[in-house]
Amino acid sequence: MNNWIRAGMTSFGAALLITSSAAVAYTGQELEKGSKISMQQASAIALKARPGKITDRELEKENGGSGLRYSFDVNSHGITYEVGIDAVTGKILENDPEGKNPD
């Protein structure tokens, strides 16, 4: 298979992964105007930090970083992790197993 076709297939697969993960509804869309990072970009950052399946996502005001963060529940190997991404800088703020009292 030539390299152009292989590169195209890889790009298509990555776009499909990001698009399918972005299809999950999320809360906090009204806060998007204050973010510099899109939900799609934040999803990609979260999945790079914690490979798995995003099961929940939200944009919320929360202490730490810029005060605006994307929060993801990522199921990885049967464990749910909370992955927080700063909505202004894209920095990973949290990447830990979800606690006993998930919010």
Structure description:
By secondary structure, the chain is α+β, with helices and mostly antiparallel strands. It is built from two helices and four strands, in the order ααββββ. Helix 1 packs across helix 2. The longest helix has 20 residues. The radius of gyration is 15 Å and the shape is globular. It starts with a helix and ends in a 6-residue tail after the last strand. About 19% of the residues have low confidence.
Put the structure in a nutshell.
With 103 residues, the chain is of the alpha+beta class. It contains 2 helices and 4 strands; from the N terminus they run ααββββ.
Strand order of the largest sheet: 1-2-3-4
| Shape type | globular
Summarize the amount of helix as a percent range: 25-40%
Oligomeric category:
single chain
SSE diagram, text form:
Layout lengths: L2 H20 L16 H11 L3 E9 L6 E9 L2 E8 L5 E6 L6
Helix pairs in contact: 1-2
